[in-house]
Amino acid sequence: MSWKDAVFRDFSLYAVTDIQQEGTEILQSVAGAYRGGVDIVQLRSKLLSDAALIRLGLAIRKIAQKQRKLFFMNDRVDLAVATGADGVHLGQDDMPLAMARALIRKSGLKMWVGKSTHSLRQALAAVKEGADYIGVGPVFATPTKPHARSVGLGFVRQAAANVRIPWVAIGGIDHENIAEVVQAGAGRVAVVRAIFATKNAEISAKKLKLKLKGIRHV
Fold first, then answer.
1. Is-above-0.85 flag for pTM?
2. Strand pairing of 40-43 and 167-170?
3. Distance (Å, rounded) from C-alpha 175 to C-alpha 214?
4. Cβ within 8 Å of residue 114, ≥6 positions away
5. Please, which residues have CB within 8 angstroms of residue 70's CB and are 6 or more apart in sequence?
6. How many other CB atoms are there within 10 angstroms of residue 164's CB atom?
7. What are the boundaries of each domain within the chain?
8. SS3 of 34, please?
9. Are 19 and 74 spatial neighbours (Cβ–Cβ below 8 Å)?
């Protein structure tokens, strides 16, 4: 098993960027997040150009490789291929998973493919499609996706009982509510603001990882 396979098998803390403008600050935050214990960073921005995303993606990939962590791209299979990402995360309205797989195979790269799900029906459908992992949420309301209806802890409990591939709870999760998410059955969590909207991404990640480990082993 490669070190990348081992990281994916054991990942517990997944961080998603919400970049408003290109700059070196985000790269410093990403490096700090990895040092603090984040296993996977997903590059996400609804505002940046493709060229900016490629520049950032190539830089993040180098940081991830150096720290032996994983780098995923949000939504865009073409940009994931262009930057040599380790994975790509698809939304419900993005490219069908089978088509994404075909493009990745054509590129000659190995890549994990994840999918966002907002109900048990969608989760089971994504498993059937062949997703490597799924996102479960948004658990709580979040300004990152202001128009998305939160699904609450009920879906987390359903996922814990019914989903047999890796899945990660996401949406409004922070230091204050992570315990109830884990206690509802989540072994993996994804955060945005709880790391990237703080003054020190490394310290924030470290605190979340320690909290996550502590709750999981109670």
1. yes
2. unpaired
3. 13
4. 72, 87, 88, 89, 90, 131, 132, 133, 134, 135, 168
5. 4, 7, 8, 11, 39, 40, 41, 64, 86, 87, 112
6. 6
7. 3-213
8. helix
9. no
Q: Which two tokens stand for residue 28?
A: 């410093």
Asked whether 136 and 154 are in contact (CB, 8 A), the reply is no
Neighbouring CB atoms inside 10 A of 147's CB total 4
Residues 12-23: tens digit of each pLDDT: 999 999 999 898
Nearest by Cα to 4 from 136, 133, 110, 119? 110
H or E segment to which residue 67 belongs: helix 50-67
pLDDT digit string, tens, across residues 83-142: 999 999 999 999 999 999 999 999 999 999 999 999 999 999 999 999 999 999 999 987
**Class level of CATH domain 3-213:** alpha beta
Quick one: DSSP state of residue 140? S
